[in-house]
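request received
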Amino acid sequence: MANILIIAIGAILINNFVLSRFLGLCPFVGVSKKTETAIGMGMAVIFVMTLASAVTWTIWAFFLSPGESNLFWIIARALGSGAEAHAFDLRYLNTIAFILVIASLVQFVELVLKKMSPALYESLGIFLPLITTNCAILGVAELNTMTLDYNFIESLVHGISAGIGFTLALIMMSGIRERLEFAPVPKLMRGLPIAFIIAGLMSMAFLGFSGLKF
Amino acid sequence: MSKNNLFKDFSKGILIENPVLVLGLGLCPALAVTSSAVNGLGMGVAATFVLLMSNIIVSLIKPLVPPKIRIPIFILVIATFVTIVKLVMAAYTPALSEALGIFIPLIVVNCMILGRAEAFASKHGPLRSTADALGMGLGFSLTLVLLGAFRELIGEGSIFGHNLMGSSYQPALLMILPPGAFLSLGMMVALSRWILEKTTPKGGEC
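response:
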């Protein structure tokens, strides 16, 4: 249980996906001009990320990893092949498998959003199809499996909290940028540069969380 | 005329339409791996290779691709080349592969590569797509190397591992940490705008 809490706090605050792992920066800069759209985008990301964590972990554990639970091996054994369990090591295919699953998931979310809330669909514009290329989603899948080697529950919690961390940073950013509209920013710094400077300052503040110890 | 066009396709990626500084694409690797110049160069070369190969393939297969499912097909093409790069890097440059970590598989979702496939290669022939990919890749790599060199210089006092600041220099560790990445990229974007403004004649088309 404590383990789960540490993963959650770690993904939201200490290793915040945007401010410390640098994942999902395109939507972070692109959709953070208004708080409303930021919330919509954040919710979409949390939803897709949680689903993607669950699905990619399942594929990793039952199709790609070698071992007793590899479905390909089970089928091969049932068919009478004498191949050993570790022969079915398909882990090198993880990037291709994950991106395909994520792309279909995003398509699904897009369809749902188009039906349920056309206004939100309009305002998210180009970034909804591009949620597929949101590196935070593929990033969480890769981290869950290749890098951190989490089990199913841990992956799920990591997915949800990474999404929450992303949304937190996105909403804070959009709040600041709404006020920035009225600030006398030098002409060269308007838009992208000042957004990076703000993100830098936020990241500096989040660096303070790395002192958290359990 | 066509030669001129090719050169234009190539050169626009370096500054006028620099993917990172002007278009704001491929920001994640640009910020994440540039804690040193070597890492920046490695990421730049890897992304350029994937961009070049996927641009060529996409421009060749574009008559066969049904428009409705073009994005998944483009992504699959890109993912194939990324897997090749990932395996080659793990075999021949293990240290670099370790340093870049998950950002090698994440080249798949680099907005720059899908963006070029969608916006350029799916509309033009293989020759122009190659020029476009090389230009964009060069612009991306240059940006990453410059950013990495700057951060390494301030944060460790060296560039490409060569100490330049002398032993008495106290490195500002912040520049290697995440905040330094955001701050230096912000400054670089502003600087590139300033240069663009100076070099383009007033009132002229760009």
